[in-house]
Amino acid sequence: MANFAERLDLALTKRGYTGAQVASALTEAGIPITRAYVSQLRTGKQTNPTLQVLRALATCLQVSVGWLVGDDYLESGSAEDLQLRAATIGLSASGLSETSLTVLRGVVELARKAEGLPDEPEPASDIPDAAAPLSGPQRRALGKRLHGLRIAARLSVEQVETAIGKGAAAIPAIEEGRISPSPIIVERLLTVYGVAVPPIREYVLSLARGERSAAWYDAHSVPVWLATTYALEQRATLIRTYHTHLVPPLLQTEEYARAAVTVAGPATLGQRTVDEALALVLARQEAVARDSGIVVWAVIDESVLTRSIVGPHVQLRQLDRLLEHAKRPNVSLHVVPMDDPAYVPRTGPFTVWRFAEAFEPDIACAHGIEADELVTDIGAVEAYHQAFTKLSVTTTTREETFELLNEHRERLSRSLAK
Protein backbone atom coordinates (compact mmCIF):
# COMPACT_ATOMS: atom_id res chain seq x y z
CA MET A 1 0.00 0.00 0.00
CA ALA A 2 1.50 3.31 -1.10
CA ASN A 3 0.50 5.68 1.68
CA PHE A 4 0.65 9.46 1.80
CA ALA A 5 4.15 9.59 3.28
CA GLU A 6 5.52 7.25 0.62
CA ARG A 7 3.91 9.17 -2.22
CA LEU A 8 5.15 12.49 -0.87
CA ASP A 9 8.66 11.06 -0.62
CA LEU A 10 8.43 9.70 -4.17
CA ALA A 11 7.20 13.03 -5.55
CA LEU A 12 9.94 14.99 -3.77
CA THR A 13 12.59 12.59 -5.05
CA LYS A 14 11.35 12.46 -8.64
CA ARG A 15 10.88 16.23 -8.89
CA GLY A 16 14.29 16.86 -7.31
CA TYR A 17 13.04 18.98 -4.41
CA THR A 18 14.35 19.04 -0.87
CA GLY A 19 12.03 19.50 2.08
CA ALA A 20 13.60 22.90 2.71
CA GLN A 21 12.90 24.04 -0.86
CA VAL A 22 9.25 23.00 -0.69
CA ALA A 23 8.79 24.60 2.74
CA SER A 24 10.32 27.83 1.45
CA ALA A 25 8.19 27.84 -1.70
CA LEU A 26 4.94 27.24 0.20
CA THR A 27 5.81 29.82 2.85
CA GLU A 28 6.50 32.43 0.18
CA ALA A 29 3.16 31.54 -1.42
CA GLY A 30 1.39 32.39 1.82
CA ILE A 31 1.15 28.92 3.38
CA PRO A 32 3.78 28.95 6.12
CA ILE A 33 5.23 25.53 6.92
CA THR A 34 8.68 24.49 8.11
CA ARG A 35 11.28 22.11 6.70
CA ALA A 36 10.82 19.98 9.80
CA TYR A 37 7.08 19.67 9.15
CA VAL A 38 7.70 18.55 5.55
CA SER A 39 10.19 16.01 6.88
CA GLN A 40 7.63 14.72 9.39
CA LEU A 41 5.01 14.37 6.64
CA ARG A 42 7.55 12.60 4.46
CA THR A 43 8.44 10.07 7.14
CA GLY A 44 4.89 9.53 8.40
CA LYS A 45 5.43 11.16 11.80
CA GLN A 46 2.77 13.72 10.89
CA THR A 47 -0.42 12.39 9.27
CA ASN A 48 -2.94 15.22 9.42
CA PRO A 49 -2.08 17.92 6.86
CA THR A 50 -4.86 20.39 6.16
CA LEU A 51 -6.58 20.48 2.78
CA GLN A 52 -4.84 23.80 2.09
CA VAL A 53 -1.42 22.24 2.71
CA LEU A 54 -2.32 19.20 0.61
CA ARG A 55 -3.35 21.40 -2.30
CA ALA A 56 -0.23 23.54 -1.99
CA LEU A 57 2.03 20.45 -1.90
CA ALA A 58 0.24 19.03 -4.94
CA THR A 59 0.65 22.32 -6.81
CA CYS A 60 4.35 22.56 -6.00
CA LEU A 61 5.03 18.92 -6.95
CA GLN A 62 2.73 18.99 -10.01
CA VAL A 63 0.56 16.07 -8.95
CA SER A 64 -3.10 15.88 -8.01
CA VAL A 65 -4.29 15.86 -4.43
CA GLY A 66 -6.00 12.55 -5.18
CA TRP A 67 -2.73 10.92 -6.27
CA LEU A 68 -0.88 12.33 -3.26
CA VAL A 69 -3.28 10.77 -0.76
CA GLY A 70 -3.93 7.59 -2.71
CA ASP A 71 -7.12 8.46 -4.58
CA ASP A 72 -7.00 4.98 -6.16
CA TYR A 73 -8.64 3.67 -3.00
CA LEU A 74 -11.68 5.95 -3.17
CA GLU A 75 -14.90 4.62 -4.63
CA SER A 76 -15.88 6.96 -7.46
CA GLY A 77 -19.56 6.29 -6.89
CA SER A 78 -19.54 7.07 -3.17
CA ALA A 79 -20.98 10.19 -1.63
CA GLU A 80 -18.53 13.01 -1.04
CA ASP A 81 -18.55 12.77 2.73
CA LEU A 82 -17.79 9.04 2.56
CA GLN A 83 -14.92 9.71 0.18
CA LEU A 84 -13.50 12.23 2.59
CA ARG A 85 -13.80 9.82 5.53
CA ALA A 86 -12.17 6.99 3.55
CA ALA A 87 -9.25 9.18 2.56
CA THR A 88 -8.89 10.42 6.12
CA ILE A 89 -8.57 6.81 7.29
CA GLY A 90 -5.88 6.31 4.66
CA LEU A 91 -3.91 9.28 5.97
CA SER A 92 -4.25 8.15 9.58
CA ALA A 93 -2.70 4.77 8.67
CA SER A 94 0.57 6.45 7.79
CA GLY A 95 3.37 5.38 10.16
CA LEU A 96 1.78 2.11 11.30
CA SER A 97 3.93 -1.01 11.44
CA GLU A 98 3.74 -3.63 8.71
CA THR A 99 1.86 -5.93 11.11
CA SER A 100 -0.75 -3.25 11.88
CA LEU A 101 -1.13 -2.43 8.18
CA THR A 102 -1.75 -6.13 7.43
CA VAL A 103 -4.47 -6.24 10.09
CA LEU A 104 -6.00 -2.99 8.76
CA ARG A 105 -6.00 -4.32 5.20
CA GLY A 106 -7.77 -7.49 6.41
CA VAL A 107 -10.47 -5.42 8.13
CA VAL A 108 -10.97 -3.34 4.98
CA GLU A 109 -11.24 -6.46 2.80
CA LEU A 110 -13.82 -7.99 5.13
CA ALA A 111 -15.85 -4.75 5.16
CA ARG A 112 -15.78 -4.54 1.36
CA LYS A 113 -16.97 -8.14 1.03
CA ALA A 114 -19.73 -7.53 3.60
CA GLU A 115 -21.01 -4.59 1.53
CA GLY A 116 -20.68 -6.42 -1.77
CA LEU A 117 -17.92 -4.17 -3.10
CA PRO A 118 -15.30 -5.39 -5.59
CA ASP A 119 -11.78 -6.25 -4.49
CA GLU A 120 -9.61 -3.24 -3.76
CA PRO A 121 -7.71 -2.17 -6.91
CA GLU A 122 -3.96 -2.02 -6.93
CA PRO A 123 -2.85 1.61 -6.69
CA ALA A 124 -0.85 3.31 -9.40
CA SER A 125 2.21 4.25 -7.37
CA ASP A 126 4.26 5.71 -10.20
CA ILE A 127 4.39 9.47 -10.06
CA PRO A 128 2.48 11.20 -12.89
CA ASP A 129 4.45 13.04 -15.52
CA ALA A 130 5.03 16.71 -14.85
CA ALA A 131 2.52 18.98 -16.50
CA ALA A 132 3.24 19.92 -20.09
CA PRO A 133 3.83 23.59 -20.92
CA LEU A 134 0.64 25.60 -21.21
CA SER A 135 -0.91 26.06 -24.63
CA GLY A 136 -1.17 29.49 -26.22
CA PRO A 137 -4.81 30.05 -25.16
CA GLN A 138 -4.01 28.88 -21.62
CA ARG A 139 -0.98 31.21 -21.36
CA ARG A 140 -2.93 34.19 -22.68
CA ALA A 141 -5.94 33.57 -20.42
CA LEU A 142 -3.70 33.17 -17.37
CA GLY A 143 -1.66 36.23 -18.31
CA LYS A 144 -4.72 38.44 -18.70
CA ARG A 145 -6.15 37.20 -15.41
CA LEU A 146 -2.90 37.89 -13.53
CA HIS A 147 -2.64 41.29 -15.20
CA GLY A 148 -6.16 42.16 -14.04
CA LEU A 149 -5.42 41.06 -10.50
CA ARG A 150 -2.24 43.14 -10.40
CA ILE A 151 -4.10 46.23 -11.65
CA ALA A 152 -6.89 45.63 -9.11
CA ALA A 153 -4.23 45.45 -6.39
CA ARG A 154 -2.81 48.77 -7.69
CA LEU A 155 0.70 47.41 -7.96
CA SER A 156 3.28 48.27 -10.58
CA VAL A 157 5.46 45.66 -12.26
CA GLU A 158 8.43 46.95 -10.27
CA GLN A 159 6.56 46.60 -6.98
CA VAL A 160 5.61 43.01 -7.78
CA GLU A 161 9.15 42.10 -8.79
CA THR A 162 10.43 43.60 -5.55
CA ALA A 163 7.86 41.62 -3.54
CA ILE A 164 8.68 38.23 -5.06
CA GLY A 165 12.35 38.87 -5.68
CA LYS A 166 14.14 40.36 -8.65
CA GLY A 167 14.47 37.83 -11.44
CA ALA A 168 11.97 35.40 -9.89
CA ALA A 169 9.51 35.95 -12.73
CA ALA A 170 9.26 38.07 -15.87
CA ILE A 171 5.96 39.76 -15.08
CA PRO A 172 5.41 41.52 -18.45
CA ALA A 173 6.11 38.29 -20.38
CA ILE A 174 3.71 36.36 -18.14
CA GLU A 175 0.94 38.94 -18.47
CA GLU A 176 1.36 39.06 -22.25
CA GLY A 177 1.06 35.27 -22.45
CA ARG A 178 4.55 34.79 -23.88
CA ILE A 179 5.78 32.46 -21.14
CA SER A 180 4.19 30.01 -18.69
CA PRO A 181 4.87 30.77 -15.02
CA SER A 182 5.33 27.80 -12.70
CA PRO A 183 2.35 27.08 -10.42
CA ILE A 184 4.38 28.01 -7.36
CA ILE A 185 5.17 31.43 -8.88
CA VAL A 186 1.47 31.93 -9.51
CA GLU A 187 0.83 31.01 -5.84
CA ARG A 188 3.24 33.74 -4.79
CA LEU A 189 1.72 36.28 -7.17
CA LEU A 190 -1.79 35.59 -5.86
CA THR A 191 -0.54 36.19 -2.32
CA VAL A 192 1.09 39.48 -3.34
CA TYR A 193 -2.14 40.53 -5.06
CA GLY A 194 -4.12 39.86 -1.88
CA VAL A 195 -6.14 36.97 -3.32
CA ALA A 196 -6.93 35.00 -0.17
CA VAL A 197 -10.24 33.26 -0.94
CA PRO A 198 -9.34 29.55 -1.55
CA PRO A 199 -11.78 28.92 -4.45
CA ILE A 200 -10.51 31.99 -6.31
CA ARG A 201 -6.90 30.95 -5.82
CA GLU A 202 -7.76 27.43 -6.99
CA TYR A 203 -9.60 28.80 -10.04
CA VAL A 204 -6.45 30.63 -11.19
CA LEU A 205 -4.11 27.80 -10.21
CA SER A 206 -6.11 25.18 -12.10
CA LEU A 207 -5.29 27.12 -15.26
CA ALA A 208 -1.66 27.60 -14.22
CA ARG A 209 -1.28 23.86 -13.66
CA GLY A 210 -2.72 23.10 -17.08
CA GLU A 211 -5.56 21.08 -15.56
CA ARG A 212 -8.16 22.62 -17.84
CA SER A 213 -8.46 24.45 -21.12
CA ALA A 214 -9.18 28.17 -21.25
CA ALA A 215 -12.95 28.61 -20.92
CA TRP A 216 -15.41 31.32 -21.90
CA TYR A 217 -15.44 32.66 -18.35
CA ASP A 218 -11.66 33.20 -18.42
CA ALA A 219 -12.20 36.29 -20.56
CA HIS A 220 -10.54 39.36 -19.09
CA SER A 221 -13.92 41.16 -19.04
CA VAL A 222 -15.36 38.64 -16.54
CA PRO A 223 -14.45 39.61 -12.94
CA VAL A 224 -12.37 36.98 -11.17
CA TRP A 225 -15.02 36.39 -8.48
CA LEU A 226 -17.67 35.79 -11.15
CA ALA A 227 -15.39 33.58 -13.24
CA THR A 228 -14.74 31.52 -10.13
CA THR A 229 -18.46 31.00 -9.48
CA TYR A 230 -18.97 29.97 -13.11
CA ALA A 231 -16.04 27.55 -12.88
CA LEU A 232 -17.42 26.05 -9.67
CA GLU A 233 -20.83 25.70 -11.27
CA GLN A 234 -19.32 23.83 -14.24
CA ARG A 235 -17.67 21.31 -11.89
CA ALA A 236 -20.65 20.83 -9.61
CA THR A 237 -22.79 17.72 -9.66
CA LEU A 238 -25.55 19.31 -7.55
CA ILE A 239 -26.57 22.97 -7.50
CA ARG A 240 -28.88 24.03 -4.68
CA THR A 241 -30.10 27.58 -5.19
CA TYR A 242 -32.61 29.83 -3.40
CA HIS A 243 -33.97 33.02 -4.97
CA THR A 244 -36.26 35.57 -3.38
CA HIS A 245 -36.83 38.25 -6.03
CA LEU A 246 -36.23 36.89 -9.53
CA VAL A 247 -36.30 33.62 -11.43
CA PRO A 248 -32.90 31.87 -11.03
CA PRO A 249 -30.62 32.82 -13.95
CA LEU A 250 -30.24 29.20 -15.03
CA LEU A 251 -34.01 28.96 -15.57
CA GLN A 252 -34.65 32.31 -17.27
CA THR A 253 -35.79 32.89 -20.83
CA GLU A 254 -33.65 35.28 -22.85
CA GLU A 255 -36.30 38.00 -22.69
CA TYR A 256 -36.69 37.64 -18.93
CA ALA A 257 -32.92 37.52 -18.47
CA ARG A 258 -32.54 40.81 -20.33
CA ALA A 259 -35.12 42.41 -18.06
CA ALA A 260 -33.47 40.94 -14.95
CA VAL A 261 -30.08 42.33 -15.98
CA THR A 262 -31.69 45.70 -16.70
CA VAL A 263 -33.38 46.07 -13.31
CA ALA A 264 -30.32 44.85 -11.38
CA GLY A 265 -27.82 46.71 -13.54
CA PRO A 266 -25.15 45.15 -15.80
CA ALA A 267 -22.47 46.22 -13.32
CA THR A 268 -23.64 43.43 -10.99
CA LEU A 269 -22.02 41.05 -13.50
CA GLY A 270 -19.03 43.33 -13.98
CA GLN A 271 -20.20 44.49 -17.42
CA ARG A 272 -20.75 47.90 -18.96
CA THR A 273 -23.83 47.14 -21.04
CA VAL A 274 -26.95 45.01 -20.75
CA ASP A 275 -26.00 43.09 -23.90
CA GLU A 276 -22.61 42.14 -22.46
CA ALA A 277 -24.17 40.97 -19.20
CA LEU A 278 -26.91 39.08 -21.04
CA ALA A 279 -24.27 37.24 -23.07
CA LEU A 280 -22.75 35.93 -19.84
CA VAL A 281 -26.11 34.66 -18.57
CA LEU A 282 -26.82 32.86 -21.84
CA ALA A 283 -23.31 31.36 -21.98
CA ARG A 284 -23.76 30.13 -18.42
CA GLN A 285 -27.10 28.50 -19.26
CA GLU A 286 -25.65 26.82 -22.35
CA ALA A 287 -22.67 25.45 -20.42
CA VAL A 288 -24.85 23.89 -17.72
CA ALA A 289 -27.36 22.57 -20.26
CA ARG A 290 -24.56 20.68 -22.07
CA ASP A 291 -23.82 18.67 -18.93
CA SER A 292 -26.76 16.38 -18.23
CA GLY A 293 -25.04 15.17 -15.06
CA ILE A 294 -25.62 18.46 -13.24
CA VAL A 295 -28.71 18.46 -11.01
CA VAL A 296 -30.33 21.83 -10.32
CA TRP A 297 -32.44 22.05 -7.17
CA ALA A 298 -34.11 25.46 -7.13
CA VAL A 299 -36.32 27.03 -4.50
CA ILE A 300 -38.04 30.35 -5.29
CA ASP A 301 -40.34 32.63 -3.36
CA GLU A 302 -43.87 32.77 -4.78
CA SER A 303 -43.51 36.53 -5.18
CA VAL A 304 -41.08 35.78 -8.02
CA LEU A 305 -44.03 34.51 -10.04
CA THR A 306 -46.00 37.73 -9.60
CA ARG A 307 -43.28 40.40 -9.72
CA SER A 308 -43.62 42.40 -12.93
CA ILE A 309 -40.19 43.19 -14.35
CA VAL A 310 -41.39 42.38 -17.88
CA GLY A 311 -44.59 42.68 -19.88
CA PRO A 312 -47.32 40.08 -19.35
CA HIS A 313 -46.52 38.21 -22.58
CA VAL A 314 -42.88 37.78 -21.58
CA GLN A 315 -43.94 36.79 -18.06
CA LEU A 316 -46.27 34.18 -19.56
CA ARG A 317 -43.46 32.71 -21.63
CA GLN A 318 -41.27 32.62 -18.53
CA LEU A 319 -43.95 30.65 -16.67
CA ASP A 320 -44.08 28.22 -19.59
CA ARG A 321 -40.31 27.85 -19.41
CA LEU A 322 -40.50 27.09 -15.68
CA LEU A 323 -43.10 24.41 -16.38
CA GLU A 324 -40.74 22.91 -18.97
CA HIS A 325 -37.83 22.96 -16.54
CA ALA A 326 -39.96 21.38 -13.81
CA LYS A 327 -40.53 18.37 -16.09
CA ARG A 328 -36.84 17.75 -16.64
CA PRO A 329 -35.39 14.84 -14.61
CA ASN A 330 -32.33 16.84 -13.51
CA VAL A 331 -34.31 19.87 -12.28
CA SER A 332 -36.19 20.02 -8.98
CA LEU A 333 -38.22 23.23 -8.68
CA HIS A 334 -40.10 24.23 -5.53
CA VAL A 335 -41.91 27.34 -4.31
CA VAL A 336 -42.12 29.04 -0.91
CA PRO A 337 -45.82 30.04 -0.60
CA MET A 338 -46.67 33.66 0.16
CA ASP A 339 -49.61 32.64 2.34
CA ASP A 340 -48.52 31.31 5.72
CA PRO A 341 -45.01 30.09 4.81
CA ALA A 342 -43.63 27.59 7.31
CA TYR A 343 -40.05 28.87 7.06
CA VAL A 344 -38.35 31.90 5.53
CA PRO A 345 -34.59 32.23 6.14
CA ARG A 346 -33.18 35.58 7.21
CA THR A 347 -31.02 35.90 4.14
CA GLY A 348 -31.00 36.89 0.51
CA PRO A 349 -30.45 34.61 -2.48
CA PHE A 350 -27.76 31.95 -2.10
CA THR A 351 -26.39 28.87 -3.81
CA VAL A 352 -24.59 25.78 -2.51
CA TRP A 353 -22.48 23.61 -4.82
CA ARG A 354 -21.60 19.96 -4.30
CA PHE A 355 -18.81 18.29 -6.27
CA ALA A 356 -17.89 14.76 -7.29
CA GLU A 357 -14.16 15.10 -6.65
CA ALA A 358 -12.66 13.56 -3.53
CA PHE A 359 -11.60 16.05 -0.87
CA GLU A 360 -13.79 18.72 -2.43
CA PRO A 361 -16.02 20.19 0.31
CA ASP A 362 -19.26 21.94 -0.50
CA ILE A 363 -19.03 25.68 -1.19
CA ALA A 364 -21.77 28.23 -0.57
CA CYS A 365 -22.27 31.51 -2.38
CA ALA A 366 -24.19 34.48 -1.00
CA HIS A 367 -25.44 36.60 -3.91
CA GLY A 368 -24.74 40.16 -2.84
CA ILE A 369 -25.58 43.59 -4.22
CA GLU A 370 -22.33 44.23 -6.08
CA ALA A 371 -20.59 40.83 -6.01
CA ASP A 372 -21.01 37.29 -4.80
CA GLU A 373 -19.37 36.15 -1.57
CA LEU A 374 -17.89 32.65 -1.64
CA VAL A 375 -18.25 30.83 1.67
CA THR A 376 -15.86 27.98 2.48
CA ASP A 377 -15.87 27.89 6.29
CA ILE A 378 -17.34 24.49 7.23
CA GLY A 379 -19.64 25.91 9.92
CA ALA A 380 -20.93 28.70 7.68
CA VAL A 381 -21.55 26.32 4.77
CA GLU A 382 -23.44 24.00 7.11
CA ALA A 383 -25.69 26.91 8.12
CA TYR A 384 -26.65 27.38 4.46
CA HIS A 385 -27.24 23.65 4.18
CA GLN A 386 -29.58 23.71 7.15
CA ALA A 387 -31.46 26.71 5.74
CA PHE A 388 -31.93 24.96 2.40
CA THR A 389 -33.01 21.76 4.10
CA LYS A 390 -35.66 23.61 6.12
CA LEU A 391 -36.85 25.31 2.94
CA SER A 392 -37.01 22.01 1.08
CA VAL A 393 -39.31 20.33 3.60
CA THR A 394 -41.69 23.30 3.84
CA THR A 395 -42.05 24.28 0.15
CA THR A 396 -44.37 22.90 -2.49
CA THR A 397 -43.92 19.30 -3.58
CA ARG A 398 -43.18 18.53 -7.22
CA GLU A 399 -46.89 18.05 -7.98
CA GLU A 400 -47.85 21.18 -6.03
CA THR A 401 -45.25 23.17 -7.98
CA PHE A 402 -46.95 22.23 -11.26
CA GLU A 403 -50.33 23.21 -9.81
CA LEU A 404 -49.07 26.57 -8.55
CA LEU A 405 -47.27 27.43 -11.79
CA ASN A 406 -50.41 26.58 -13.77
CA GLU A 407 -52.54 28.71 -11.43
CA HIS A 408 -50.34 31.73 -12.02
CA ARG A 409 -50.26 31.02 -15.74
CA GLU A 410 -54.07 30.86 -15.92
CA ARG A 411 -54.38 34.06 -13.88
CA LEU A 412 -52.05 35.87 -16.24
CA SER A 413 -53.78 34.43 -19.33
CA ARG A 414 -57.16 35.64 -18.08
CA SER A 415 -55.83 39.15 -17.51
CA LEU A 416 -54.43 39.21 -21.06
CA ALA A 417 -57.75 38.02 -22.49
CA LYS A 418 -59.66 40.96 -20.97
Automatic annotation (TrEMBL):
PROSITE patterns: HTH_CROC1 (PS50943). Pfam families: DUF5753, HTH_3, HTH_31. CDD domains: HTH_XRE (cd00093). The lineage of its organism: Bacteria, Bacillati, Actinomycetota, Actinomycetes, Streptosporangiales. Residues 115-135 are annotated as: Disordered. It comes from the Bacteria. Gene3D superfamilies: lambda repressor-like DNA-binding domains. GO terms for molecular function: DNA binding. This is Helix-turn-helix domain-containing protein. Residues 33-68, 146-200 form the HTH cro/C1-type domain.
